[in-house]
Amino acid sequence: MSVPKTNPVQEIHAPAFRLLEGRGTASESSFASLRAWILLFGSFSFAGGHGVFLFAALTRLERLPAATELGGPLETAVQLWFMAGIPLAILAVPLRGRFLRLTGRAGWTLATAASTLTLAAFAIYLNAIVSA
Questions:
Q1: pLDDT tens digits, residue range 63-97?
Q2: Contact 45/85 with Cβ under 8 angstroms?
Q3: Which CA distances in Å does 125 have to 22, 54, 71, 72, 118?
Q4: Which of the residues 79, 99, 112, 131 has the least number of beta carbons within 10 Å of its own beta carbon?
């Protein structure tokens, strides 16, 4: 038996992983845009996860609380952001390809805005809980 000889000069390429049969590799132009999408999706998921919690908590009550019981307009906006995070996180997945085709600056601007809104919403929410 003989061992097949290989050419030492032959270039070795990393395999292209395909998620679906017949599809090419992901269309991201750089890992920076992928990182921006991960930040965007994580921010939406973080807000949406708490939105699911709030939705479940509010719908289990015998009666829905009045707007004055939920807080002022700022607290209402925070709760709306948490509820909006649910569909936004779901929509971020199929729209990933379009997001990755954005310029780096536009992608990072959207991701940073979502992250900042989510962090500010949690700060306001926790402040309302502590002061209640």
A1: 767 767 777 888 889 989 999 999 999 999 999 98
A2: yes
A3: 46, 11, 10, 12, 10
A4: 131
